[in-house]
Amino acid sequence: GESVGLHLPTLSVQEGDNSIINCAYSNSASDYFIWYKQESGKGPQFIIDIRSNMDKRQGQRVTVLLNKTVKHLSLQIAATQPGDSAVYFCAENIRETSGSRLTFGEGTQLTVNP
Amino acid sequence: NAGVTQTPKFQVLKTGQSMTLQCAQDMNHNSMYWYRQDPGMGLRLIYYSASEGTTDKGEVPNGYNVSRLNKREFSLRLESAAPSQTSVYFCATKPPGSGKTQYFGPGTRLLVL
């Protein structure tokens, strides 16, 4: 079936470096993509989203890039800090007649080394 | 404004016991969702409710039932718990309209022995 997945399960970076987390999706009907951050013992927290008619969106220290040609999504974190250590999930939103639903990728564990 | 709250935070059950996980939101959102998260995996949708009075199956509904009691509350029931249902359960809500993200509760950790 169609799914959302991540290329790398773990990513380790030095404090101050930029981080790039990747995601591949396969459902061309998805109209909206979201990145979530999940810290240990907590629920997922919204970071940034992007509509399918956009290819780039920037937030505070984060940028999401969407390449619909190859069905690829990435999250870039600038000047990564220890507080950025968490699991990052991408999710795609699929609209159905009964409502919309999210499909999540497996997640990437980001570790920031001081 | 508490957002999305879940009770209990942690529960241990024996195989065959039943229990209800509670979720409540004070954001006046129409849609509510129940997910489970297993170690090293993303979230999988169990059931969702697009609006009060409606519920639909998600990816992994077997062994669960839900009730959308009113706009604020969406409960998840395990009638006869199994060890395979050991997981962390998250409730989420979404405001109306397209392109809106979901907001998650803190989770309920369930251990079935």
Tell me what the structure shows.
The complex is a heterodimer of chains A (114) and B (113). With 114 residues, chain A is mainly beta. Chain A is built from no helices and eleven strands. The radius of gyration of chain A is 14 Å and the shape is globular. Chain B is mostly beta strands. Helices cover 0% and strands 49% of the residues of chain B. Chain B has no helices and eleven strands. In chain B, a hairpin with a 6-residue loop joins β5 and β6. Chain B is globular, with a radius of gyration of 13 Å. The mean pLDDT of chain B is 93. At the A-B interface, β4, β5, β9 and β10 of A face β5, β9 and β10 of B.
Q: What's the structural blueprint in terms of helices and strands?
A:
The complex is a heterodimer of chains A (114) and B (113).
Chain A: E1 4-5, E2 10-14, E3 19-25, E4 32-38, E5 45-51, E6 56-58, E7 62-67, E8 72-77, E9 86-96, E10 99-104, E11 108-113
Chain B: E1 4-7, E2 10-13, E3 19-25, E4 31-37, E5 43-49, E6 56-57, E7 65-68, E8 74-78, E9 87-94, E10 103-104, E11 108-112
Key phrases:
heterodimer, A: 114 residues, mainly beta, 6-stranded mixed beta sheet, 5-stranded antiparallel beta sheet, globular, B: 113 residues, 7-stranded mixed beta sheet, 49% strand
State the gist of this model:
Chain A is built from no helices and 11 strands. By secondary structure, chain A is an all-beta fold.
CATH topology of chain A: Immunoglobulin-like
Low-confidence stretches of chain B: none
Q: Give the averaged pLDDT of chain B, no decimals.
A: 93
Architecture (CATH level 2) name of chain A: Sandwich
In DSSP terms (H or I, runs of 4 or more residues), the helix count of chain A works out at 0
Which runs of chain A of at least 5 residues are low in confidence (pLDDT < 50)? none
Largest interface: pair, residues per side: A-B, 27 and 27 residues
Terminus-to-terminus distance of chain A: 40 Å
The H-and-E topology of chain A, N to C, reads as EEEEEEEEEEE
Number of strands of chain B: 11
Q: How many angstroms does the end-to-end distance of chain B come to?
A: 36 Å
Derived structural class of chain A: mainly beta
Q: Evaluate the radius of gyration of chain A.
A: 14 Å
Specify the overall morphology of chain B: globular
- Which overall shape of chain A is indicated by the principal axes computed on the Cα atoms? globular
Main sheet makeup of chain A = 6 strands, mixed
Number of strands of chain A: 11
Oligomerization? heterodimer
Tell me the fraction of residues in β-strands of chain B, as a range.
Answer: over 45%
| Whole-number total of structural domains of chain A | 1
